[in-house]
Write a structure and sequence with these properties.
This protein has helices at 27-34, 36-59, 63-89, 99-115, 123-156, 161-197, 200-225, 242-251, 253-283, 290-315, 317-336, 342-360, 366-378, 384-411, 423-448, 457-469. It is an all-alpha fold.
Length: 473
């Protein structure tokens, strides 16, 4: 017999104790969890945006080879996400099913981050093998092993929807801040270190090591200061096989919507994050413009996301995401009319930031809602595998986009060692930056229109509370 749920009604306050699944979380615990996201974002941003630039422009590996390595790596990466999701769902420890993995993998995570940039001078073939091995050890094994439990932990801290959304909003705002710092400040910092020590690759290694140490300290605090209160799935005597769990995921419409939005957001993120450096250097004529344009996009996102707890109850997640997509489309169309204008590049970045903030701010509360919806519809609760599948979509979008981008640049004749690119290479850089994000905005708009859980959520959670009080899912 399962324990009786502590849920007694919407809007009622709960003490933040370890046994209350609907607890109101203290600000100390919220921030301890949310600051863990920038610690993960530091390396994720390095490996999805600047790493390609490092391989092509510092090590001198062709964009085509880098694209193929990343494409092949994502095949393995997808399997590792599913495996880690099943491991989380079957983990039982005194620290819960998720937190324990953060403790176990935090040091290997930092070490592998540094090894990514320690590419030895052993020829193109040797360097390609080294890149493949370290990239897969980092992303397929270590990053998957620590990021999946972190995502699951956010859902397992409480079942109170407003608390989850607040946690997600703060987390995403901090994530953007971390991404903004890495994207905008890393290259100038590396250049300064390189000027002092006289070795560019060593500068990349030293800066990454600094980031890695900071990440260790933050993630250890996340582990020690958070708690897993939601134990619904652990109280069920029925064990769901991986095959059955995947079938249930495919039938969960809100999981599919969340997955689709995450996949295409990732495409957008990789395109903007990767191509912005090339676009500023070769089209706008100044690579230092990366910083102001990145800031123009990221800073508005932070402010809008922090306002979402007040906007979501009034407008709903669907309407905010749809409105954001329309804003992004308008901004991209504005820039296409004058793609060499630096002021327009900044204005468009601001519009993109405001537009994408509506989805990004709820990107990890959407799967939490889908978990509750799946339990409501099927009587089965799937947590670890739900977030693992979301990560598959994220990594699939990242890997495919990075691979296609690398091969497209190689086909256009891009040469990372050349000071000036060919007309075909410049055209490729422009086309990617201008038109791919526009297509992504349109696709995300269509997907978001199918989301309608806002109006049914209160009824759904009330019925779940009644069922759980009777000892059933």
């Amino acid at each position: 017999m399962r324990k009786k749920s502590n849920y007694t009604g919407f809007g009622e306050k709960h003490l933040a104790n370890e046994n209350d699944e609907y607890a109101k979380i203290s600000w100390k615990e919220k921030l301890s969890f949310c600051f863990g996201d920038p610690a993960l974002t530091i390396v994720y941003t390095l490996t999805t945006t600047l790493l390609i630039y490092f391989y092509t422009n510092v090590i001198g590996i062709s964009a085509g080879i880098v694209g193929i390595v990343m494409l092949l790596s994502r095949i393995f990466d997808g399997f590792s996400d599913f495996i880690m999701g099943m491991i989380i769902d079957r983990t039982h420890s005194k620290y819960g099913k998720a937190r324990i993995w953060i403790l176990r993998l935090v040091v290997p995570y930092a070490v592998m981050a540094v090894l990514l940039f320690t590419v030895p001078p052993i020829g193109v073939a040797g360097q390609t093998i080294y890149i493949f091995l370290t990239y897969n050890l980092m992303n397929t094994v270590i990053y998957t092993g620590i990021s999946q439990p972190f995502h699951t932990l956010g859902s397992n801290m409480t079942r109170d929807r407003s608390e989850r959304e607040t946690i997600c909003n703060i987390r995403m705002a901090l994530s953007i801040t971390g991404s903004m710092i890495i994207t905008a400040l890393t290259l100038p910092l590396i250049n300064q270190v390189a000027a002092v020590i006289g070795h560019e690759q060593a500068a990349w290694i030293l800066v990454t090591a600094l980031y890695a140490i900071i990440s260790i300290l933050i993630l250890l605090n996340t582990f020690s200061s958070t708690r897993e209160r939601v134990r619904v799935s652990e109280q069920s005597e029925e064990k769901v096989s991986a095959a059955d769990a995947l079938k249930l995921l495919v039938k969960n419409r809100y999981f599919l919507i969340s997955l689709g939005l995450m996949l295409f957001y990732t495409v957008y993120q990789i395109i903007i994050g990767t191509d912005l450096t090339y676009y500023c250097q070769y089209i706008l004529g100044d690579v230092d413009l990366v910083m102001p344009i990145s800031l123009a996009e990221k800073i508005p996102m932070i402010f809008v996301i922090l306002c979402l707890p007040f906007l979501i109850p009034r407008f709903g997640k669907r309407n905010l995401i749809v409105g954001g997509c329309i804003m992004g489309i308008m901004g991209q169309l504005l820039f296409i009319n004058n793609p060499a204008s630096i002021p327009l590049a900044v204005i468009t970045a601001v519009m993109r930031g405001v537009g994408m903030s509506s989805f990004y701010g709820v990107s990890f509360s959407l799967p939490s809602d889908a978990i509750e919806y799946g339990q409501w519809k099927t009587g089965t609760r799937i947590e670890g595998l739900m977030f693992a599948s979301m990560s598959v979509g994220q990594k699939f979008g990242s890997g495919i986009t990075s691979a296609v981008l690398g091969m497209y640049f190689a086909r256009a004749g891009y040469d990372g060692t050349a000071a000036v690119q060919s007309a075909a290479a410049n055209a490729a850089i422009s086309n990617v930056y201008l038109f791919v994000p526009l297509a992504v905005w349109i696709i995300m708009l269509v997907i978001a229109c199918f989301y309608s859980l806002d109006k049914d959520y209160g009824k759904m959670m009330s019925e779940l509370a009644q069922r759980e009080a009777r000892g059933t899912l």
